[in-house]
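Chain A, query sequence.
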Amino acid sequence: MRASIYLDHAATAPLAPGVAEVMHEALVDAAGNPSSPHPPGRRARARVDAAGETLAALIGAEPREIVWTSGATESSNLALRGVAEFVGHGARIVSVVTEHPATRDTLAVLAKKGVTVDWLPVDEGGAIDPDELAAALAQGPDLVSIMHVNNETGVIHDIPAIAEQCAAAGVALHVDAAQSLARLAIDVRRTPIALMSLSAHKIGGPKGIGALYIRRRMPRIGLAPQIIGGGQQRGLRAGTLSTHQIAGFGAAAAHAARHGVAAQPAWARLRDALWDAIAPVGGLHRNGRPEHTAAPFLSVSVSGVHGAALVAGLNEGEPELAVSAGAACSAAKGESSHVVRAMGRSPREAAATIRFSLGPGVDDAAIAAAGQRFTDEVTRLRALAAAV
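Chain A, predicted structure.
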């Protein structure tokens, strides 16, 4: 087997210790439908409830404020579509140009259906201007939707400050917390967030399971359900609950509660060591201010190389570097990063952007090897370009 260094934890993280075992137990010992009243059903319901309590505790919520979904993409769809349909004609939503496609693409569809969407720009560091948010809030929107940590650059939006600004204007806030859960502490008891999208597989849980936090206290928000039939989850999201996936999310949340936020200083040190290792090759632009970037993220635009060739060379060489060109979702569309373009990079620079995202299993030796591998590949590609 070829050597591989996994630096794509923002795309998906390997299962955390104990998660697979908990999922297997749920499949074998709790095979009943969680909505059924008989003992097998009650055993399944107990596992669902336990996971809900664990996840809720991680964000300071109440278990009844958690609605299970298939992932953060569905959660964001439920939040955005749900609010727009609940409000009806004249709905207005504010968001940011660097949002994840789950938000951007959903809002684009809603705009075609008559929803007014106001897009906030970002500066070269990826941050929004509070004054521009204030101007947007003055238009009386029904919802503001902003991600906590950008999935491509790791840039952190100041959600506590944004939430207070929205609350003062009487506007509900939806937060995409897929990349911040267990990386940054957030307490919905103290921060007036109305809706928050969460994902299991970003924190060591299984793919295919997520959740939407829906605040029951003020500021509350009305939602129109998007999946109907069966009445599960108080009618907000119908369908038989996937006990083993939910149990896996709960196990990952329990692990994250013990190790997530506490591990961030170590990831920051390793991230900065990686930058120090690759910076001497020259022609690199670090996207996002380090002090305002989540610890495991390093986004770098590279001059003098073809982006697709660089990604292919890193992914397929020896050792293999599992990295992304911006984000996995953008790569799937064959697009350069809209995020770094919005931060002022040219289309060519955006196309030659590499996202490193660290996580469990990455140590000093892996960072040193990755730094050398990156340097060698950039040097090789620049030499080939110069020879043409």
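The chain has a mean pLDDT of 94. The domain at 4-14+261-387 is CATH 3.90.1150.10 (Aspartate Aminotransferase, domain 1).
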